[in-house]
Amino acid sequence: MIGIETLDEFVIRKQDELPYAKGELSRLLRDIGLAAKIVNREVNKAGLVDILGTTGAINVQGEEVKKLDVYANKRFIAALKLGGECCGIASEENKDFIVIHDEISKNARYVVALDPLDGSSNIDVNVSVGTIFSIYRRASSGGTCILEDFLQKGSQQAAAGYIVYGSSTMLVYTTGHGVNGFTLDPSIGEFCLSHPNMQIPKAGKIYSINQGNFISFPEGVKEYIRYCKQEDKTTNRPYSLRYIGSMVADIHRNLISGGIFIYPATKDAPRGKLRLLYECNPMSFIVEQAGGRATDGFKRILDIEPKELHQRTPIFIGSEEMVLKAEEFMSDYPSA
User: Fold this and answer.
1) pTM of the model
2) In the chain, what are the domains?
3) Could you report the per-residue pLDDT of 128-173, keeping only the tens digit for each?
4) Distances (CA, A) of 25 to 45, 136, 162, 289
5) pLDDT of residue 1 exceeding 50
6) Secondary structure E strands in the chain
């Protein structure tokens, strides 16, 4: 198709921007794109087949497992294993990371951290869900991968991205050289470049937070919410509250339109709820590359040193001016 650039074509064309890449990262991104197409097919026909509802199991995060969680997890792991470009996979759905032992993969130079189906609690009610992925160059040298290959700061990511399964299906990713979005064209079965060089507005009018937990929020978050609801024409307030309950969908909207997404610590979850490796690091890498900001309220997300595979963190992410303002309120109540 004239004038259309597919994900595969774009990834290959941009390969020279990465001095350490020798084609493996390009193929790895294409493997993820393939798995996304397969999962998208099942998401789109979820109501027609027996993949709605729960399995009755509880995952390592203490959350109820949806049938589509299991399906997406299996499909992405299978595609990454088959591709042979990564030596290990850490998934939000698995207690331990997966070591790929076959002769092709065991000496591969990359590991992948994955949230196969973010926002899966929404799937039964036909609301947008997504996939989040993060790619690191392995820290160990040769042989099978080890835990330390995954416990790297977010600033060390080689690439990160997400897929949002919505009214259209989009794959958005960065390798540290800007952010580009690709929309799946079902007529040709390809992700096509639709949003080149994505930039998040410096400010916006949307704040995204589960305000039902207001009573459990730190005082700095409460004060910021009160600020968002006040009327002030010079700062375009009050802001609009928009909360989907799927991190991918909320951040995707704010990335395009401007806004802030907050998932703070609460009394029941003093370390936060969202996972550093699978959700916060990759989304922070993307948003920063698009000109935004991402912190835990005090410290840059990408500078946090991971100590465990399923580590959690609070997150304030989105338009730079909005995140900075939220941090001002947090600094006014550092121990509240």
Assistant:
1) 0.92
2) 7-195 (3.30.540.10), 206-332 (3.40.190.80)
3) 889 999 999 999 987 789 999 999 999 999 999 999 998 899 999 9
4) 31, 10, 16, 18
5) no
6) 54-58, 64-66, 88-91, 98-99, 110-118, 129-137, 157-165, 169-174, 179-185, 190-195, 206-208, 240-241, 260-263, 293-295, 315-318
